[in-house]
Amino acid sequence: MKGILVSPVIHGLRDVGEGDNKGAGSGRGSGSGAGNSDETGDGSGAVSASGDEVKDVQILVIRVAPSFHRPHAVVQNEGFRFHLRTSGGTNPMDINEVRSAFSNTDHGSQRVQKFIEERCNYHRRDVEDGTCMLYLVPLQHDPSTDLVAMLDQKTREAISPMGGGPWNHYNLEGFTSYSTYGTPTVVERGIQIFRSGIVESLIRRFVSERQLRGEYLIRLILNTVDYYGALLQRYTQTYPLMISVALTLPEDTVLEIPFEFRADSRKIGRTEVLLPPIVVNEQPADWAKELRPVFDVLWNAFGLEQCFYYNREGAWSRHSWQRQ
Q1: Is 292 helix (H, G, I), strand (E, B) or coil?
Q2: Closest CA to 197 of 159, 134, 140
Q3: Are strands 241-248 and 131-138 parallel, antiparallel or unpaired?
């Protein structure tokens, strides 16, 4: 939570709150309405003023980061109140709605995790050149809203995995696009848009001669997150956005790195790697910086301290192969 002091003079603030200059107020519309005797607000977003114009007032604006942990409580008269926003306005929640909201919060992350594990099992194959599964999960998308039904023709035609995919069509889950290779046919890269708003990206052939091509994989992930994060924003409430990455690799896979670091690198030693998901609360200025913790953990899995494609300032740089 962060606050900034807005000053010096704000004119034309109307219908914010009503007060008697003794500390009490109704706070119509934008806050609790508590005020001080000097007609300034208490910092909660309400200002006690009975006139049409507010002058010589300092207001503390508090920024509260979005949260997907529902329900949200409001302190009112030394107690908690829970409200529900609907098309008809904001109304207090009854006890059953509060109980249901807490239950959904407790199990929401578990449902997402179970969904990702089921999809990973679905895609798991004995493919020696690696499989990477990337998931974008908009946590506040209304699950009763069919995202795929909202996509116009131009958007559907533009849906393809990074690097292109000649096939795209509707399927049971929603809409998909993919490219294939080999005999029997295997999906090389694929995008699945689920009706629930989840985006799944499938990437293969990033392991060559048991070496994981780290820079190549990272660039594909960054490009996918950037493109499909923007697509989601056009159709749904994207943030907070959960991002999860899972890999299936040959057990003896090593990381493709310069010779000077090979003494530090280790074989992955496992076939399944589920990296810790991250939750992004708002559109980041730099996706590479935002996703660095994910790539650091992947590098840790190979025995290395961090992903070396970042400089000391934490910015992406493919020439940053140096010990920090």
Answers
A1: helix
A2: 140
A3: antiparallel
Q: How far apart are CA 272 and CA 257, in angstroms?
A: 21
Average pLDDT over every residue of 220-243: 92
Question: Alpha-carbon distance 111 to 57, whole Å?
Answer: 48
- Convert 172-214 into a string of H (helix), E (strand) and C (coil): CCEEEEEEEECCCCEEEEEEEEECCCCEEEEEECCEECCEECH
Give the pLDDT confidence score for residue 227 in this predicted structure: 94
Residue 200 CB neighbours (<10 A): 24
Q: Beta strand 131-138 with 254-255: parallel, antiparallel or unpaired?
A: unpaired
How far apart CA 23 and CA 42 sit, in angstroms, is 9
pTM score above 0.90: no
**Cα 214 from Cα 321, distance rounded (Å):** 13
pLDDT over threshold 80, residue 8? no
H-helix or E-strand spanning residue 63: strand 59-63
Q: Which helix (H) or strand (E) holds 223?
A: helix 214-235
pLDDT in tens, 95-149: 777 777 666 655 556 777 788 888 888 887 656 678 899 999 998 887 778 999 9
Burial class (CB in 10 A: 0-12, 13-18, 19+), 12: exposed
Token pair belonging to 295 = 């790539």
d(CA 199, CA 136): 5
